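Hey,
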Amino acid sequence: MIDNAVLCVKLYLSHMIRIERKKSNNKPYYYLSERILVNKKHKKIQVFLGKSVPKEISTFYDALRKKELLLVDEQVKEKLPAGSFLELFWLKKVEKTKVKWKYHNAQLSDFHKRVLLRKFSVRFIYESNAIEGSRLAEHEVSSIVENKYIKKSLTTEEVIEVQNSIRCFELLSSGDFILNHKHLKNLHLLLVDGLGIRGGFKKEDIVVNNKMTVDPKKVRKELTKLFAWYRSSKSKIHPFERAIIFHNRFEHIHPFTDGNGRVGRLILNWMLMEKGYGFILFQNSNKTAYTTALDKGDEGRYRSLLKLSTNTYYNTIKEFCA
């Protein structure tokens, strides 16, 4: 089931790195090249492969990656936009991690990309559901995802929760998801289908961590404002910071009766993958730091969540691109 989803995720794993063939004096020469955006202009970087393409080119990928990392240092020296909550050294860490993700995936076959996404999906479902109180072990989640033997001791609800999460992955990786009310509610319905949780936006007040979330009557209006902010801030706020702040504001709105955290973390990964950053995995072992940072963000203090997210992103890519 998850294999089909991975075939649709090529958009998120795509890259510009290519092998180019040039001619000089009627002789072919091959280069590994990439075009990257530097100071709002595209710049081409390349390494020479030889008069033919070597069978093993991982060292050339590494050489090209190092060239791009030097340009990251150059870019990050510039000032961040006014009002940014990111620190320059956080931004450098994020951008260098993004480069690691890109060059790792550029060398993977379609099969190994499927393996990578399957591995992440199991960990994500396990950790995200555990944050919300699930007691399933990671190997039990893996068995459900891969349609293997499922222990009779598992409840129907526990199995359905995992199966629904797989369907959510399929939707978000299909390229059909759009950030609007209709698609958001459809995503939530997929997540809670068969669990006895009412779909649609919440009808009653909900308190989270002793704090009142947005008034049910204002949910639609606040989401509309949030969607508009996300679109209008595209050229003003760094994409990583933008996605993290969106996540914080979404969780504060808390639009549904249940499933808000899981929906929010799914959308966060969709946003980061769409912009070429790959995965981010908040772990249950770090739940207190995560929820505390979200609480601060509810008051407009996003630095704690951005710092946590920067380190979490770095650790996620380090683990899955080892």
